[in-house]
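I hope you will forgive my troubling you with a question about protein structure. The record follows directly beneath this note:
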Amino acid sequence: MVTSAGNVGDAGTFYAKAPAGGDGVHAVGSVGNLRVPGFTATVNTKSSSFTFVYAGGIPISLNGSQSLPVILSEFAGLNESCAIMDNSTSLAGSLPVIAIRDCYPGDEASYLTAANASIALWYQDTTSPLLATDVDLEIPGFQGLITDEKSGRRIVEAVKAEGKVTIDFSNPQASYIEGDVGGGFMAPYTNYGPDWELNSYVGSSSVGSNVLSTWPLSQGGYAVLSGTSMSTPLTASAYALYMSAKGKKETPAQLRSVFAATATPLHYSSTIKVIDTVGRQGGGLWNVARAIASSSRVWPDRLSLNDTEFFNGTQKLTITNIGPSPQKMHVGHIPAGTVYTRSAGKWSYGDGLVPQNKDQATVTVTPSQFTVAPGQSTTVTVTFQPPTPNQDTMPMFSGYIKFKSSEDSGSLNVPYLGVAAKVRELPVILKNPKFNVPAIVDPTSQGPVDDSATYNLQTADQQPIFQYGFKAGTALATIDLVYANSTTATSFRRDAAQPSNSSSSAADIPAGAIVGNLGTAMWNPRSYDTPGTVTITEKMY
């Protein structure tokens, strides 16, 4: 199965999603397009004019005039750190021009629409920790455009120098933006692994940001879309191309392996030249031509090292020469940047996961040099020494075992990943009064209720709701209603095979303490933006 890794990169690490986390599945990450399809527009000042290229998620549609006055972000009542300065100015009929800095364009767009803006133009700023923006903001009635840094700065300088500047969209010519909008790097929305069994997650990655696609004719006929739902079908089509050239004799696992092992590991960004974590890119950007031409095979296609409490630090890799000539192999180590999955007792989100060249593993490979005859295999032993464990930051370290062949077509990489901490010491139950978890909330207001509240469980709009969340993933969670006067411990054991019933849900709760089981949740991810809920009804017990 080839499937999307997911589009919730801002949630941080340990956010593998089904079905991408299944055994043998090829989860696909997303990479920025090197050439973003777009159109030309003309900037008119008092003394001159010039053209630039913009990209839009859908064909631009303006009511009335095709020429809009430019307003800079500081005059639009907005700054680039996601804080509203002033919302008294109406932005209707104008074009805000905004640098991509500390705030996601999607968040800024919500502020702009509140000020009656229907369109805005973003440009890349090299000082930004954000790597790129996507043109499909998916906000009804609002059009987000992007351009390159050079064009954006030129527009800003024109406004500052001459005051009134307009942009005319009336004569668009097809073109593209190249270079500095995140092309060639991992898209920030790609989900991070590993899963909660500490298995590596993403197999490899493909172009998925700002991809030209067909679209309903009623909405313009085309759209420039982004997501792992764009990179995944491209990967599936590459599988088909590979099999048309090589035949259908290889298993799905072997296909995943050859695409991951011949992929190119990517740096984090153009300014942070550190190899991005395997937790997000897997093997890297796949190359179907290299996959077809490859004269070697390696197994397994990834090494999951577990955490440092149960460290699986000695593993074996077997490389096979399927080419016509002997291959001299040199085996080395390419460390990727380490990301710190937690900070101050909380998960590090999105732009906080900048990889760093420290707290990396050291690797020994035996033998490190050998020759593989055609049709033969050699097995090497790989020994890892993890970085010093840190329970507070939970470093996720990763990298690649590099098989460099005397034949270029025989060179391969095998990604590995581990965590320098004791994962089982993470608390599972999320306790956060700000988000009302865990808590009983009113079915109408969604606000917390006090202990003196009474309920009519026979009436739907009066049935209370229990909200809960998970600080870490859990294979099984049971939610029980217990008698108020019962005495229970703060934690219990429960066998996953033990059936839930009205008299007993947890294995070692005192007999008679449970009124009934309200719900059972299995294979739960950690909570990110939505709590779990159970509506308490009379029929539950």
In short: The two ends are 41 Å apart (CA to CA).
